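Escalated from tier 1: magnesium ion holo job.
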Amino acid sequence: MIVRELQDHNYTVLEASTAEDALEMITREVPDLITLETVLPDGDGFSLCKTLTEPGYTKYYAQSPTGHLPVIFITEHDTLEERRKGFEIGAADFLAKPFYRGDVLKAVNNIVRPNKRLIGLTALVVDDSQMARRISAEPLRREGLTVFECSDGDEALCFMEKMHKKIDIVITDLKMPKMGGDTLCLKLRQDLGLTDLPIIFLTAISDHTLLLDMFKVGATDYLVKPFVKEELIARLRVHLERAQLTKNLRRIIGSLKKANDEIRTLSITDPLTGCYNRNYMGVQLKKEIRTAQRCKRSLSLLMCDIDHFKRVNDRYGHTVGDEVLKGFVECMGGCIRADIDWVVRFGGEEFLIVLPETGVDGVRDVGERLRRAVEETPLKTSGDALSITASFGGTGFGPGEPPNLITVRNLLVTADNLLYSSKNNGRNRVTIGPLIGIDAES
Ligand code: GH3
Ligand code: MG
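Tier 2 regenerated the structure:
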């Protein structure tokens, strides 16, 4: 695989299957790079790599253009320990098995043909002199960059408004007719929000105050004209690499954040109805109670349960039953305050509604409103729309409530008992009562 991938891209490849073969081969022809398996039939890659740094062997490649022989380790055991061992003896890179098409080529290109790293990147060169543009643009093109040219700040700004997503670096002259490089830079940073884009200034001025002014408007770097093209390329490479790393990092952070949000949402919601689950209630209800007490406000709970829900399942099947549950939660969601009140799936077809800043009188109104809405709203299902009713039990506390009475358990048990009073008294009704102490924990 390795040989084929490299040969396909015009590398000449020598092959050795043992450490002995490899060492012998190097005395005859020195390669530009070695890919080396960590486990060999007659030893291990690390020892071979070490042997290559001994004077008996360095003499073979000391005269090569780079003066060293880079080694890429290929390993099945990609552990931190292995990597540390490899890098300590001078590995240039590590590839873990299984590797995929293009991995070896990329690693080899990075070392042997570093220039290729700029292929696929795009630069914008801004200068009012065509000759000056050519002096900057040509070396960049030779490095494999795609280069666009603009002749002043105005033109460059218009160009960037449309094209900024495709541009990886801007190289601009400072003094230009109409809009200069400084104004252009400021507008790119502030108006287009391109905070990570590398912007390099080319200037004939070496006055330090003026150079500092360039950084004040957001320059990444500058070069004083006349410059050597090697310096331009070297600086460009540093800034492009940094920008690419930043871009990758932002992408990774973005996807991690998204995944994190999704995991959090999944961990606190009921997958069927989308309302909160009991995990969330366990944490949030305590907080809500504490806040109400601290701010001397009321808080109420409504426990509700669909009447004769078993009959829905029995008559129409579980799928329709599920649709009814969803519709029921949606119907209630439309009758409570968004972002203040919240619904928890307490059990199968039993739900809890938490109503901050609502006293026992208030919860009676809310309960009645919900009861009526459920009764009057036929719930859509994949079959016919179904009418259901539900029973409610509500309780709560206000600022005057004895603090030792206010516990999660007391609130839940009182609301549940009141719900069952509603059931026993004929269903489709709301029963509200004061908070009763089942236990007196605080
Ligand atoms: P009551 O008026 O006394 O509350 O009668 P009920 O039939 O609603 O109560 P019961 O406790 O006898 O039955 C509740 C039913 O709810 C039984 C259970 O299979 C069903 N159920 C619980 N969770 C789900 C669910 O997620 N989907 C569906 N389709 N049914 C569920
Ligand atoms: Mg029920």
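The domain at 116-267 is CATH 3.40.50.2300 (Rossmann fold).
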